[in-house]
Amino acid sequence: MNAIASAWLLAWWLLPLSGPPVRGLILSGSGDPAANTHPPTGLLASGGWQWQGRWLFALGTVVGPRHFVTAHHLGGRPGDVFEFRGLRYLAQEVTQRAGTDLDVVTVAGRFADFAPLQAAAREGGRPLLVFGRGGRRGDPEPGRGWWVGEYDGVQRWGTNTVAGWVPADRSPVGELLVMDFSVSAGADEAMYAGGDSGSGAFVLDRDGVWRLAGIGFSVEGPYAPDTALPVRSGALYDTRGLWAGFPGSQELLPPGPSPTGTLGYMTRISAHAAWLGLQTSAASPSGRRILESAPDLRAAFTEESAYAVDDAARRVEAPVPGPTSRFYRLRGASRLEFISVDGGLCRFRFDP
Question: What's the whole-model pTM score?
Answer without folding.
Answer: 0.92
